[in-house]
Amino acid sequence: MNISKHEQRVLHVLAQGGSIHFKRSSSGKVHEIICFTRDGHVLTDCTLRVFERLKKRKLIRSTGGKPYRITYKGRVSVRPQLDNR
Predict the structure, then answer these.
(1) What's residue 85's pLDDT?
(2) Which partner for 68 in 2, 20, 28, 46 could form a disulfide, CB atoms 3.0-4.6 Å apart?
(3) Residue 80 contacts residue 36 (beta carbons within 8 Å)
(4) Which pLDDT tens digit goes with each residue over 29-46?
(5) Which of 80, 82, 3, 10 is nearest to 44 (CA)?
(6) Cβ neighbours of residue 17 under 8 Å, at least 6 residues apart?
(7) What pLDDT digit, counting tens, does each position of 44-66 carry?
(8) Is the pLDDT of residue 1 over 80?
């Protein structure tokens, strides 16, 4: 699966324990997102376009209105890096 550099960065942050918090519009669609690392820092590489692509490919998921997290498919798809734990 071809995953862009920005998508890889977001998946690495999520694999290390990060999450994507979101706000929905009155129509029910996600219109604002903020990606947090496990340390509480904000990742600026996570844009709405990157979020939509990850969601479309089922690499991230939200259950019960909670923040989006990485799925098993996302963990398998992400390329390993030295800083992963």
Answers:
(1) 53
(2) 20
(3) no
(4) 999 999 999 999 999 989
(5) 10
(6) 37, 38
(7) 989 999 999 999 999 999 999 99
(8) no
Domain ranges of the chain: 5-75
Place of tokens 């963990």: 75
C-beta separation of 51 from 64 below 8 A = no
Three-state secondary structure of the chain: CCCCHHHHHHHHHHHCCCEEEEEECCCCCEEEEEEECCCCCEECCCCHHHHHHHHHCCCEECCCCCCEEECHHHHHHCCCCCCCC
Q: What is the tens place of the pLDDT at every residue in 68-80?
A: 999 999 999 887 7
As a whole number of Å, the CA-based R_g of the chain is 12
- Kindly list the distances between the CA atom of residue 78 and the CA atoms of 2, 14, 58, 69, 74, in Å, as whole numbers in the listed order: 10, 10, 13, 14, 6
